[in-house]
Design brief:
The protein is α+β, with helices and mostly antiparallel strands and 441 residues long. The chain has helices at residues 10-14, 47-50, 60-66, 75-78, 93-108, 141-145, 157-170, 185-194, 219-230, 241-256, 295-302, 351-364, 384-392, 407-415; strands at 23-25, 28-30, 34-35, 40-42, 112-114, 120-127, 130-140, 149-150, 172-173, 177-181, 201-204, 210-216, 235-239, 267-274, 280-281, 283-287, 306-311, 322-327, 330-336, 375-379, 398-402, 426-427, 438-439. Strands 3, 6, 7, 8, 10, 11, 12, 13 and 14 form a 9-stranded mixed beta sheet that branches.
């Protein structure tokens, strides 16, 4: 597939009034942590028709329903199996080819167009009064590979393979990686000033989340952002570990094919938010059975590590170390014994680790929550009523609600080079697909 726009070389980028800074070292040219790019994005009048939920929050069946009467929805690109027979595997070669075909069709119809110059894009999400504003940029694969862009989760090879094939087929990155940084006054001022202008898009999705996008073309402001980020020690992946790992693999393949370290294929699509605006919700657990115990013996075993209090209403924990438990139509508040909380272990002191290590593993016999079919995970966006529903239906025996993991804890784990347990964080609001894509030539 050939997309419009010529291949961008380092010399082309240097023409933009010094926007992209280079640091010369003995080893050669070192690229900046982030850089602007010429985004592929909807024409303003088409944006509402194109923008779609992230590919990984909808099942194929849900996506088929969402696109009814919406031929321009980005789901035709991010989940192209919806346009093929229902019995076809989503990993069939024809699926990736269909995604490329659908992307090309939107380009040919001028629904999607590529900017004529390198830009940053400012992206604001407003979810029921929670507002966060970030920068759409491309981030350095080299800095990801050396852990300057820090990780906190393991990835699965099959999911990585899927994203590699999708990026390679499209010759574009369409799903942004969700990054965060320690908030910075200079960055805040540039964003605040730029957002006083009229936005390029301002639309509200079906779930009520408002998505607003500005295009930042001013060279001095672009330079200020590029320099400010390049002074930062690191960035952190909040969500998108598989997308960033896949981007790294694609970048390596492009280097084998002759791409230089300054080629835009050596960067990945990102939306970067300040840490003080991020919102992490609870990520709760439901478990199928009590591992052969009756209710009384289970509660007695729990009380050896937790203070157990029966309460009349659903428990939304008010602080770390507190948990809600719903069992046999009754809510309990659990408070872990302080002596069981490790002080110098950034992973072990997480609430998800404490409940796993002190209750779920020893009492319920689930040692590997990543693979054990007796446990399931419920994002906090669904509310505590969803936990009650899963237990009351008889599908599950017990449910646990959590206090959300903090950004400080996430950063501490990443800084230590450790990984979090599975399903430790649920970020809201979610980024939309289709607002801005990164073409790799």
């Amino acid at each position: 597939m050939v997309l419009p726009g010529s291949r961008r070389k380092a010399a082309d980028s240097l023409q933009l009034a010094g926007v992209i800074s280079y640091r010369i070292e003995l080893s050669g040219i070192v690229m900046t942590l982030i850089r602007p790019f010429a985004g592929l994005r909807p024409r303003p009048e088409s944006a509402a028709d194109v923008v779609a939920p992230p590919y990984d929050v909808l099942s194929t069946a849900e996506a088929r329903e969402r696109v009814a009467g919406r031929p321009r929805s980005f789901l035709h690109i991010s989940k192209p199996e919806i346009d093929l027979p229902e019995d076809m595997s989503p990993y069939d070669d024809k699926v990736y080819a269909k995604g490329a075909e659908n992307l090309q069709a939107l380009i040919q119809d001028k629904v999607l167009q590529r900017d004529s110059q390198d830009c940053y894009y400012l992206y604001r999400l407003n979810m029921r009064g929670h507002v966060q504003t970030g920068i759409v940029a491309i981030a350095s694969v080299a800095d990801y590979d050396t852990n300057r862009i820090r990780k906190h989760e393991f990835t699965r090879p099959d999911k990585e393979d899927d994203r590699v094939r999708q990026i390679d087929a499209l010759n574009a990155q369409t799903g942004p990686v969700f990054l965060t940084y320690r908030h910075d006054d200079t960055v805040d001022k540039v964003i605040e000033k730029a957002c006083r202008q009229s936005p390029e898009y301002d639309l509200t999705a079906d779930d009520g989340v408002q998505h607003t996008l500005w295009v930042l073309r001013e060279p001095q402001e672009i330079e200020a952002l590029t320099r400010s980020f390049d002074k930062m020690n690191c960035l952190y992946i909040a969500d998108g570990h598989h997308r960033s790992a896949a981007a790294s693999r694609v970048a390596a393949l492009r280097r084998e094919q002759g791409a230089g370290s300054d080629d835009i294929s050596q960067y990945f699509l990102s939306v970067i938010f300040p840490d003080n605006q991020m919102q992490i919700l609870d990520y709760n657990r439901v478990i199928k059975d009590l591992n052969g115990q009756d209710k009384a013996s289970f509660l007695q075993a729990v009380s050896k590590s937790f203070a157990v209090e029966s309460v009349a209403q659903a428990v939304k924990p008010a602080a770390p170390g507190q948990f809600g438990m719903y069992l046999d139509g009754q809510w309990y508040r659990l408070t872990i014994q302080q002596a069981l909380i490790p002080t110098n272990d950034p992973v072990g002191r997480l609430d998800v680790s404490l409940l796993q290590n002190q209750l779920i593993s020893p009492l319920l016999g689930i040692d590997d929550p990543r693979r054990d079919k007796r446990i399931d995970f419920v994002g906090g966006i669904r509310g505590l009523a969803e936990l009650e529903k899963r237990v009351n239906s008889g599908e599950m025996a017990v449910a646990f609600s959590f206090y959300p993991t903090s950004m400080a804890d996430l950063m501490a784990v990443a800084d230590a080079g450790e990984v979090m347990p599975p399903k430790s964080t649920w970020f809201e609001p979610k980024l939309a697909d289709g607002l801005v894509s990164h073409v790799l030539d």
